[in-house]
Fold:
Amino acid sequence: MRTYSKFERKLVFSSLLISFLLSMGGQASAMHIMEGYLPATYCVAWGAICIPFLVMGIINIKKTVKDKPKTILILAMSGAFIFLVSSLKIPSVTGSCSHMTGTGLAAILFGVSSTSVLGLIVLIFQAILLAHGGLTTLGANTFSMAIAGPIVAYLLYNAGKRMKINRKVNIFIAAALGDLLTYCITSIQLAIAYPSPDGGVLASALKFLAVFAPTQLPLAIIEGILTVLIIIGLETYAVPELKELNYFDN
Structure:
């Protein structure tokens, strides 16, 4: 369990306060949602919610670089994996798309907050270089892909460890369901921003989920398999680095 200095605790508390105040400015509602698709209040609200995670992520990455320098290459590789697989998009519904997220790997190895920073960096590059997502929807996309999904992957992985589930099976489940949760959140976010005239937010969310499901279910399975394969490679060639990350601890 990492301990934070007094300054770091104040920084995290301040970010939580800022997040709360900004998110009160409008209704909250987005994953790679295109530029200009969400109203401004929704963009601000989702961006504000991301702030505490990003602040903690920067602190944790700084600690990792300082205390576990051998793991920097794996951290960079985790970010590259997110960029690669989340750039392979399949059109799914107006204003969005289906693709793997790649964040389960980083969440398992480095935790949720560090993953949020990696995801934000990836989303910025994709918005600028690939016109994938957008700068106005950056906060919304960060929350769904780099925070919500990793939270599920991290919790499931650690629960599986406590239940003594086979490590490879555990990793597959965590990565695949973390991917799927991202799209559940995206569907809910889009539904909040654009509720159905008949049935409101719930009906709209179900419609988005129905459109996403045919492409996202197989993609989640593929992401789970890819994550397991990468872990197998790391267990073969990066044992010292994994030990520094306490990966082998039960």
